[in-house]
Amino acid sequence: MIALCLWVSLHGGAGDAAGQAPLAVRDEGIGAAAGLSGRAGIRDTANEAGERAKADGGNKGRIGADEETSEAEGGAKSEERASYEQPRISIYLSKTGKVETVSLETYVQGVVAAEMPLEFRPAALEAQAIAARTYAARRLWLGERAGEAAHGADVTDTQEHQVYLSVAEMKRLKADDREGWEKVRAAAEATEGRILVYGDEPIEALFFSTSNGYTENSEEVFSTKRPYLRSVESPWDSAISDRAKETVEMELAEVYDLLGVKTAPVSGAGASGDLIRVLERTEGRRVKTMLAGDRRLAGTEVRRLLGLRSASFEWKADRGKLKITVYGYGHGVGMSQWGAEGMAREGYDAPRILAHYYTGARLEQVSKLAIPSNKRP
């Protein structure tokens, strides 16, 4: 059982890749299920607990006077119908500059609707719902404050935390795409209250768009090594995602300038005497370090400087231009969203999808955590 004494301080690391914990959950970032036949699914201790809570009537909360949404408005299931007492989470809305406060399950629906294509299979949407709820739970219960949101909110509605549709936007979605909205609602309801934990804590449930065939170890992108964020194969992405591969062409002079290189030509990767060459790749087949002239750069830094979709790339020089082929989209840590969709198409359920991407994590019921006093409904 998760300890009820999880600390609830309101401070923590800051910055995307610099603090104690990675921050950017996602960035802009089907073959056979290789290597999955022997993988055990996540132990779903949450399911039995959730069913018992529903049978017993649950530890139901109440809707506060300033609650922003209800199922009738197009938001999540109301707190009165939820099977557990939900905390409230405040979101800074970047488009309006306002702060919206909603129940946890409403927030989960807003994230699923914003973060994943509604055409995805139910199992993929359910996996996304659990990841979204877990990320929020970690911030609320552990007081993780990496990437402070404006105006004292818990999170923003941007990729700095998790992209989120506001209550008003969810209401419009319900009106414009009833079928899509029902898939979002069903995914949140089917997974209600479930989160991923490792040891006694909610995990840092990072996710991204599309892999290069592998996910990445957390320490290769962020400063912290997480035992549940290990590199695994993700062979499904390349067959179904239009973000799996992209070729960009840049002038050599521009590349030199962006990387701080001042002289000499560039040849194809691997040739002797190259001005720009890969020194080391990660376990996830991304560029770990490169030599650009006399500069040694991390692959993640090259990605940022050149504006590439990912740190998995190769190149070829041709008549004053550099053709760069980029594989995947995003930082590569945690769950690949298109990989999750690929697994769902092959019949894997949400627990198996999550077991694949979050090594050693287990499903648990969020109601086993004590709600921080400042987040009670």
Which SSEs are present, and which pair or pack?
Blueprint: H1 45-56, E1 88-93, E2 98-103, H2 104-115, H3 122-142, E3 155-156, H4 167-176, H5 178-190, E4 194-198, E5 201-202, E6 207-208, H6 218-221, H7 237-240, E7 245-251, H8 252-259, E8 276-281, E9 287-292, E10 295-298, H9 299-306, E11 313-318, E12 321-327, E13 335-336, H10 337-345, H11 350-357, E14 362-365
Parallel strand pairs: 1-3, 6-13
Antiparallel strand pairs: 1-2, 4-5, 4-14, 7-12, 8-9, 9-10, 11-12
Short descriptors:
377 residues; alpha+beta; 2 domains; three-stranded mixed β-sheet; three-stranded antiparallel β-sheet; 11 helices
Short description:
This protein has 377 residues and is an alpha+beta fold. The chain has helices spanning 45-56, 104-115, 122-142, 167-176, 178-190, 218-221, 237-240, 252-259, 299-306, 337-345, 350-357, and strands spanning 88-93, 98-103, 155-156, 194-198, 201-202, 207-208, 245-251, 276-281, 287-292, 295-298, 313-318, 321-327, 335-336, 362-365.
Major β-sheet, in short? 3 strands, mixed
Rounded mean pLDDT score: 79
Rg measurement, Å? 22 Å
Proportion in helices? 25-40%
Principal-axes geometry comes out as globular
Summed up, the domain count is: 2
Strand line-up of the largest beta sheet: 2-1-3
Number of alpha- plus pi-helical segments: 11
SS strand fraction: 15-25%
| Quaternary structure state of the chains depicted | single chain
